[in-house]
Amino acid sequence: MILLVFLGVVVAFALWAVGIYNGLVTARNAFKNAFAQIDVQLQRRFDLIPNLVETAKGYLSHERGTLEAVTAARTAAQSGLSAAKASPGDPAAMAELAQTQGALNGALGRLMVVVEAYPDLKANQNMMQLTEELTSTENRVAFARQAYNDSVMAYNNKREVFPASVVAGMFNFAAAALLEIPDDKAEVREAPKVEF
């Protein structure tokens, strides 16, 4: 009889641990999926930028430095995204992604300031369409980032509360990092202004 009670306790404990483990795996997969949505939107953004630069190039021939800065920032941002895709939630990867996206935001913002000085370029149908798509994409990136951060918070909460913290520690469920733009860079917090 005592053996049956002991076996029952062991089985109940095992089922409890499996349930917690499965919940942690589900939460981890949710934040990775949310990061995949950020990836989709950032890729869309990266695809728009060369067209934007090409459209502006004819009008801004003496602003080559601005156009080259946007292109260089795009390349760096793609590199930051690749690092983050390899390890979503990793603090170093998320910091690099935030830094490179901030630099790209700054470069795009400077380009839009320059574009404002060229009425013909502002009135160009292709430029108007591209800036509208870029604005829409920036909004999608913001929503995807918020969904990712919400998923990371849910995962981190789940792995830190007792008794799940015991199972998380046993199976090395590491904390995931939010995708945050640093507070000390106020200009990074602002989406590029693409109004005409």
Automatic annotation (TrEMBL):
Protein biosynthesis among keywords: no
Keywords, sorted A to Z: Membrane, Transmembrane, Transmembrane helix
Subcellular location: Membrane
Membrane topology of the entry: Single-pass membrane protein
Gene3D superfamilies named among the record's database cross-references: LemA-like domain
SUPFAM superfamilies referenced in this protein's UniProt entry, alphabetically: LemA-like (SSF140478)
One Pfam assignment: LemA
Domain of life: Bacteria
PANTHER family (alphabetical): MEMBRANE PROTEIN, PROTEIN LEMA
Family as reported in the entry's similarity comment: Belongs to the LemA family.
Stated name of the protein: LemA family protein
Native species: Luteimonas salinilitoris
Lineage: Bacteria, Pseudomonadati, Pseudomonadota, Gammaproteobacteria, Lysobacterales
